[in-house]
Amino acid sequence: MSRNALILRSCAARTLKLALRSVPTAEQRRSVGGMMEATAVDQDAKKARPRPMRINMNATKCYAVWSAVDELKLQVVEDDTVECDIYWFDVAKSAPIEWHTSLTPDQIINQLYGTEVIGRKDSLARNIQSMQETWKEGFDFTPRTWVLPSGRASLVEAMRGAAACSHKTFIVKPSLGGKGEGIRLLMSPELVPQREQIIVQEYIEKPLLMEGFKFDLRLYVLVTSCSPLRVFLYGDGLVRLSTVPYLPPVKDNLDDVYMHLTNYSINRHSAGFKECDDPDKGSKRSVKFLMNWMETRGYKAADVWKQIEDVMVKTLIVAQPHLQEAYSKTRPSATRGDKSFQILGCDVLIDENLKVWLLEVNRSPSFASSMSKMDFHIKHGLVKDALQMVLARLDEMYSIRT
Q1: Which of these ranges, 72-81, 151-160, 270-279, has the smallest mean pLDDT?
Q2: 19 and 39 Cβ atoms separated by less than 8 Å
Q3: What's the pTM value of the predicted model, to 2 decimals?
Q4: Sign of CA dihedral 397, 312, 138, 318
């Protein structure tokens, strides 16, 4: 292993360990999602609170968020109240920059400006490619990617070379947007769009299958500070299955979105979609179930989870300089880098060799739950644990002040 790779791995490990050291004592620890630790409310700090913690929920209607706030017994303030400790926005409804700059140093908001550097597919590709050029090793966790229209000539050349030796498949994705909209597979360079803002990637043709179906993972990463960088990987998530048994791509099945795409927004319209409350059945399951499923079949799930941790940390390392710069502009009155936080949805795929591939980062993952109790349970727990970590920081601030 090269010296650069060792330094990078050490940096990623230190970042994760730094995050986990937010848990100072055994008395303050508690299990979060089974695989992550968060800081519980310290009783001495709790006594220092001058009043109940107040949260402005005007910009969210998601039941999972409201139920978590209710369970934590936070005081929800009136819609037009500016005096509060936490602002919660559905991130899709981004607060204007003037809103951020007007916040007091004691107020915390669930939005980090700058996350578009990894939330946009073209920006994510460019930034990871830049890190690949710098480090040479350690950032090979995304499929080979071309950003169009600027990279079209290079893509066409690669596709023609691939066609000469094999029938390689490529996947087209809009630079912006989500829910599987605009995604399609192709093999012919003649079908590559001319002027659209898209990315094109080599298609992973040999994914790990579950019961014959392709699947991906929606993982959740909480960023509580951009300087220093503190990231937490939630210990559960969603496994989203396609609804038509998988076959390797050929010209006759390239258009079968229910076979090749795993997006819930697409597959819920399939006749093969199965909604289920159990985390081990149906077309949407839990990451915890997946880890157990892998173990029972002889796969080393712990090694896969370590890969996932590594990919998540390095993805945020890619974004960190941009986040810090944006934070300094949007929160100029804050003396620390932890007055904004955000939950990101990260989609990964595991191939048949158990390599973890990052597909995309969603800066506004949905906290609306489907009809599934499992779906609600995961999202409710995620939001609750994220808020508890924020409350611990606020308690610390009050404790220091008094």
Answers
A1: 72-81
A2: no
A3: 0.86
A4: negative
Closest CA to 82 of 58, 51, 110: 58
| pLDDT above 80 (res 318) | yes
Tell me the C-alpha distance between 162 and 104, whole Å. Answer: 56
CA 180 to chain centre: 16
Question: What is the distance in angstroms between the CA of the first residue and the CA of the last residue of the chain?
Answer: 50
